[in-house]
Design brief:
The complex is a heterodimer of chains A (336) and B (261).
Chain A (H helix, E strand, L loop, with lengths): L2 H26 L3 H27 L6 H16 L5 H4 L5 H4 L5 H25 L4 H19 L1 H4 L5 E2 L7 H19 L2 H11 L1 H6 L4 H27 L1 E2 L6 H14 L4 H25 L4 H16 L11 H8 L5
Antiparallel strand pairs in A: 1-2
Helix pairs in contact in A: 2-9, 2-12, 2-13, 2-14, 3-6, 3-7, 3-12, 6-7, 6-12, 9-12, 10-12, 13-14, 13-15, 14-15
Chain B lengths: L2 E12 L2 E12 L3 E5 L6 H8 L7 E6 L2 E2 L5 H7 L1 E3 L12 H13 L3 H6 L2 H20 L15 H14 L4 E5 L7 H17 L3 E5 L3 H7 L2 E6 L2 E6 L1 H6 L1 H17 L1
Parallel strand pairs in B: 3-8, 3-9, 6-7, 7-8
Antiparallel strand pairs in B: 1-2, 1-4, 4-5, 9-10
Helix pairs in contact in B: 3-5, 3-6, 5-6
The chains are: A mainly alpha (336), B alpha/beta (261).
Bound molecules: adenosine-5'-triphosphate and magnesium ion (MG).
Chain lengths: 336, 261
């Protein structure tokens, strides 16, 4: 850390504190239902920002978030699960893991690391080919991960999933993850590394000829996105206390891509706003769905909003930019 | 003088078509060489081979004595090659400043860890890249466009931004593919002066492809002529202009085209 770093941190820190205070106020009078909803909105926002880091910054088309979330959820849940029940419930676990009963923080960190490692294994061969093969490869990864979770009973309990995961996460954990993801994405975007990523997206060939290792940029963005997705999966599991092989499916990948596109591919604030809007909207439509028997209606609305945005504002809410006042807010120059 | 860029026997086939055959180049520090030839002669293909965009079917590329045949473009850029494109390729959605700063990443960009750790190295690197980019932008007279979206600039200004971005990589050799295409006479003159300055003042070797003969004759002390993928002449502008093989190359294609029409 340097003097510059301290100066650069003061304004964002103030923003985070203000946001935390606001959240605290809202939570004061909130019902349990609303608290959970807010936590889900925050986690979805973290997921959307991490996907815009991968897809928006470097022009990749990854659909892999649900796979990394599933991996993260299982890894973290296995680590935090009661050491008394683990050996009988998950007989195939190696003894040293069966005996562990970790707190949430190291479990989430481990989830992130495993997610990142899987992303390296998948990304390294695929990203050396052309970028768009990644969509197919990550789609395949979702299927592989789901099947692994389904069939590796001795560690995952198969189709029944893991239930009774300790409810260690809370809306504050979700808030913390969102802050972390936004901070990392923001720092990268407004740095040389971020410009190299955006250059890769804008014109791969020109970026290469300008000395940018485009494969490395894409792999970096893919791995960071996967790491955050796995951490979000871990928090989801400890928030709703179950994870099954089907918890996070292709449909979620679609919804996240929609959030990124609506927010503007590459826009961090756009992803946050779009994630909140879409999650809120789907939730508001739920009662209507149930009372009218129109199941899948909210999904149709999500798809419709995508079509509308593509039609009237193809660059999304903010294009790849950040709203001016947010930039000034984070840089501490609001009134200059 | 030592060669900064050497190519020997470069050949590239596309299926049955031999786009470039046995192309040889020796570019010394401070050289300013022209590469001319009729449409489809293989000039752009030669550039792409030299910069690693295309892999040669045969032949070798050496930069400052290092054999870099078959390596990726970013490796050749790191070794000191920079280029512009016949059909401009900017980072259209980024500002002019960001375009040029992207060129600075190669030499001064901070690592991921330094960036996230907010170390002093990160701040040093950011300010170096910004300062260098602003200096290049000023030098090329692009100051008024600094914060404009690159894709919104006029054709001539976009060409200069491409050159600015290339300079930000601190090259030893700069390859310009038809830098004057689409420019008006005044812009062409500015460009000629600019290229000469880059060569003279910064000591960067330049290889320039152009159809504008006056520009080539003005600028270059040595000219190579390609025709149907083969080098048919090389020498001073005067010598090359008088060369029967060169006249034949240009007249030949013109006659052919007249025949097609
Ligand atoms: N990727 C490719 N695949 C197949 N053929 C190609 C490819 N690139 C170039 N060619 C062919 O190779 C030959 C040389 O093309 P090139 O673009 O190098 O010519 P050039 O000298 O740059 O022409 P111009 O003056 O029109 O820019 C042409 O016949 C062209 O059609
Ligand atoms: Mg050409």
């Amino acid at each position: 850390m340097s003097k510059n770093a301290l100066e650069a941190l003061i304004a964002p820190l103030a923003v985070v504190l203000a946001a935390a205070a606001l959240l605290w106020l809202v939570l004061l009078g909130a019902s349990d239902y609303l608290v959970t909803l807010i936590a889900i909105v925050l986690l979805n926002a973290a997921l959307a920002v991490s996907l815009t880091l991968t897809n928006g910054f470097t022009g990749l088309f990854s659909l892999g978030h649900p796979a990394f979330m599933t991996i993260g959820a299982y890894v973290a849940a296995i680590l935090t699960f009661s050491a008394r029940r683990k050996p009988s419930m998950l007989p195939d676990l190696p003894a040293f893991i069966a005996g562990l009963e970790l707190p949430l923080l190291p479990a989430v960190a481990a989830a992130g690391i495993v997610g990142a490692l899987v992303a390296i294994v998948v990304g390294f061969p695929v990203l050396r080919l052309r970028g768009h093969y990644l969509a197919v490869a990550t789609l395949g990864l979702i299927v592989i991960v789901q099947n692994l979770a389904l069939n590796w009973d001795g560690i995952t309990r198969g189709g029944a999933g893991l239930a009774g995961i300790p409810r260690l996460a809370s809306v504050w954990w979700a808030f913390g993850l969102l802050v972390l993801v936004v901070a990392v994405a923001w720092r990268i975007k407004f740095s040389s590394l971020g410009r190299a990523m955006l250059a890769t997206r804008e014109n791969e060939l020109a970026a290469e000829c300008t000395g940018i290792d485009t494969v490395k940029m894409r792999l970096t963005a893919f791995v960071i996105g996967a790491c955050f997705a796995a951490m979000a999966g871990a928090l989801f599991a400890h928030l709703i206390s179950v994870v099954t092989p089907k918890s996070y499916s292709v449909l979620l990948a679609f919804n996240l891509v929609v959030m990124v596109v609506i927010g503007g591919a590459g826009s961090i604030m756009g992803a946050v706003v779009a994630a909140a809007a879409i999650t809120g909207l789907s939730e508001m439509l739920r009662p209507a769905e149930e009372s009218l028997g129109l199941y899948g209606f909210s999904q149709v609305v999500v798809a419709l909003s995508l079509i509308l945005v593509l039609f009237f504002r193809p660059q999304g809410l903010f294009g790849n930019r950040e709203p001016d006042f947010v930039r000034r807010l984070f840089s501490g120059r609001l009134f200059k | 003088m030592d060669a900064v860029l050497e190519a020997g026997g470069l050949t590239r086939r596309f299926g049955g078509l031999v786009a470039v055959e046995n192309y040889t180049l020796r570019l010394a520090a401070g050289d300013l060489v022209g590469l001319i030839g009729p449409n489809g002669a293989g000039k752009t293909t030669a550039f792409s081979l030299l910069t690693g965009v295309l892999k040669p079917t045969a032949g070798s590329i050496t930069v400052k004595g290092r054999d870099l045949t078959g390596r990726k473009p970013h490796v050749l850029a790191e070794a000191g090659l920079a280029r512009t494109f016949q059909n401009i390729r900017l980072f259209a959605d980024l500002s002019v400043l960001e375009n040029v700063m992207a060129g600075g990443h190669l030499r001064y960009g901070a690592s991921l860890l330094a960036t996230l750790g907010l170390t002093q190295a990160f701040w040093t690197s950011e300010s170096r890249i910004t300062e260098a980019a602003r200096a290049i932008i000023a030098r090329l007279g692009l100051g008024e466009f600094t914060d404009r979206r690159a894709g919104d600039l006029s054709y001539g200004d976009q060409r200069r931004v491409e050159i600015a971005r290339a300079l930000a990589t601190e090259p030893v050799a700069l390859l310009l593919d038809e830098p004057a295409a689409g420019l008006n006479p005044a812009e062409t003159k500015t460009l000629t002066t600019l290229v000469r300055k880059i060569n003279d003042e910064l000591g960067i070797a330049v290889l320039v492809v152009e159809h504008d003969m006056r520009l080539i004759m003005d600028l270059c002390r040595r000219v190579q002529v390609l025709n149907r993928g083969r080098l048919v002449a090389e020498g001073t502008p005067e010598k090359v202009q008088a060369d029967p093989a060169v006249i034949e190359a240009y007249l030949g294609t013109r006659r052919q085209r007249a025949g097609h029409a």
